[in-house]
Amino acid sequence: MIEIKNIHKKFGKNEVLKGIDLDVKKGEVISIIGPSGTGKSTFLRCINCLEDADNGSIKMDEKEVELRHIKLADKLWLRRNTAMVFQGFYLFNNKTVLRNITIGLTVVKKMSQKEADEKALEILKQIGLLDKKDEYPSSLSGGQQQRVAIGRALALDPKVLLFDEPTSALDPELVNEVLMLIKDLAKQHKTMIIVTHEISFARNVSDKVCFMDGGKIVEMGNAKDVIDNPQNERPKKFLNVLKNRDELI
User: Fold this and answer.
1) What angle (nearest 5°) sits at the alpha carbon of residue 27, between those of residues 228 and 46?
2) pLDDT per residue over 142-200, tens digit each?
3) What CA–CA distances, in Å, run from 144 to 34, 152, 192, 218, 246?
4) Exposure string over 10-20, b if 16+ CB within 10 A, otherwise e
5) DSSP letters of 191-211?
6) Which long-range contacts (C-beta less than 8 Å, at least 24 apart) are formed by 88-92?
7) 110, exposed or middle or buried, with CB in 10 Å at 0-12, 13-18, 19+?
8) Backbone angles phi, psi at 29, to 5 degrees
9) Which of 34, 38, 138, 241 is the most buried (most CB within 10 A)?
10) pTM for the whole thing?
11) Torsions phi, psi of 47, nearest 5?
């Protein structure tokens, strides 16, 4: 469904992405794990064109976009077909929960307000926040705000959902409600690429896991195989550190 080839990205002299290739089938969930600072979030941002890649291409269905010197029309097309959920929630604090979801529908999808309201109410029911539709983000918990952000992304019916550490800004007791929502989306066969440090979650919800280090995918395969029995020494070391830390705690 989506073929990502040879993604490169530099910031000055720092080469953050060194040729990333990734194929994602429709309905597939792929989690990207690895140490901080290895380019995982930058990779997602290049897919969504929040960062301009220096080289590479993205093919979605039958359309292929070259990312070097990308045209504005192609950039907008990629943004319409992918939706990013960030670490921070980036909700409009001066708008109700309902309006936070409908604004994308009226502006991007050009829906009438009535159509947008109907769609948003369906989404709020799906994410379990229908009773919060008239409240403002400041009255919600962090977990609820992130669920609204996920709902806003869902409402646009993207071909691919991109999650950039969706639980990292949450207090520990609020993490589970967001992970359960993402797990439910996986059961609905939503196509998702998830950058996460929640290793157990990645193991249980993903079809594939990619381990990134130094701007490259070092190992990729079946989620349980990569996490339980990695073949490369770098993911072995990384995962053993996490396991030992959990045992100490």
Assistant:
1) 85
2) 999 999 999 999 999 999 999 999 998 888 888 999 999 999 999 999 999 999 999 99
3) 27, 12, 20, 35, 27
4) eeeeeebbeeb
5) -EEEE-S-HHHHHHH-SEEEE
6) 88/169, 89/137, 89/142, 89/145, 89/146, 89/148, 89/149, 89/169, 90/149, 91/137, 91/145, 91/148, 91/149, 91/152, 92/137
7) exposed
8) -115, 120
9) 34
10) 0.94
11) -65, -40
Three-state DSSP at 49 gives coil
Half-sphere exposure of 105 (CA within 13 A, CB side): 22
Angle at 230 between CA 227 and CA 233, to 5 degrees: 130
Contact 29, 209 (CB under 8 A): no
- CB burial of residue 1 (10 Å; 0-12, 13-18, 19+): middle
Residue 64 structure tokens:
């292929």
What is the DSSP secondary-structure string of 130-195? GGGTTS-GGGS-HHHHHHHHHHHHHHT--SEEEEESTTTTS-HHHHHHHHHHHHHHHHTT--EEEE
